[in-house]
Amino acid sequence: MSLSLHRLLILAFVAALLSGCGLFGKREDPLETMPVEEMYAAGKDALMAGNYSRASRYYGRLVSRFPFGEYTEQAMLDLSYSQFKAGKPEEATSTLNRFIRTYPTHRHIDYAFYLKALINFSRENVFLERFARLDMTQRDQGATRQSFDDFALLVQRFPTSRYAADARQRMVYLRNLMARHELGVGLYYLKRGAFVAAANRGEFIIENYPQSQHQNDALALMAEAYTRLGEDTLAGDARRVLELNDASHPALAGDWPRRRGWWWRLIPFSGDGRATRR
């Protein structure tokens, strides 16, 4: 055996021996031995600093290592918020669902319902940033409807919650948004000559979103669609109701829906292009 080969065998033996002793092994994760109080404090510091990924890591490991206890309960709520802010809505919703199932009587259970609704609400705001470039008939209203239902559940179960007032305001906004979507679909049908479908969409708005911002626009849509169908009696009825509700509506002046100013206010953007709430 040559001297070089002999040295290589010795080095390989020593390396194997040191590895077996753990000297070359993976360094132990400090989160595996950190006390629960210290881990929660570190997660809280990261959360306050806006480092949501780091906060999620600390909170997630805390919940995994300590499945029960006061720190764990609060860590799950903070974890869901961190995941939400880190752009992981599915993970945040999953954490909240687990919290609601595990701690249905927790003193902050109303916050869990509120945050769950807010996550879907925020998904809708992402849509609003692209609103003008989408075909209204292709827009899935799932997140909007789910957010509305979640806020409604919060208000129903916790009417005195500190989050109830904000939830009600967001419900009004979402209700108007859903009505506006339906109106956009109706206008789409009207433009393409599907007058029966347009009239039905206007009726749907009246029945499902009464007193919304677009109730009178739905009446105008029905009047226009019935006129083009030759249903003068139905068209006249819709116009009379519209005149009682809003005598200044553009449809009564004969320049609806062709007037750009009317259609432009359907698009929820301010003059600088940013989405606005109503």
List the helices and strands and how they pair.
Elements: H1 3-20, H2 36-48, H3 52-65, H4 70-85, H5 89-102, H6 109-128, H7 142-157, H8 164-191, H9 195-208, H10 215-229, H11 232-245, H12 260-264
Helix pairs in contact: 2-3, 2-4, 3-4, 4-5, 4-6, 5-6, 6-7, 7-8, 8-9, 8-10, 9-10, 10-11
Helix content: 55-70%
Q: State the end-to-end CA separation.
A: 86 Å
The main sheet comes to: none
The helix count comes to: 12
Order of helices and strands: HHHHHHHHHHHH
CATH-level-4 superfamily name of one domain: Tetratricopeptide repeat domain
Structural class: mainly alpha
Per DSSP E runs of 2 or more residues, the count of β-strands stands at 0
On the 0 to 100 scale, the average pLDDT is 81
Stated plainly, the CATH topology of one domain is called Serine Threonine Protein Phosphatase 5, Tetratricopeptide repeat
- What is the architecture of one domain at the second tier of CATH? Alpha Horseshoe
Q: What multimeric state do the chains show?
A: single chain
Radius of gyration: 29 Å
Globular, elongated, flat, extended or rod-shaped: what is the shape?
Answer: elongated
Show unreliable segments: 20-25, 126-138, 260-278
Share of β-strand residues: under 5%
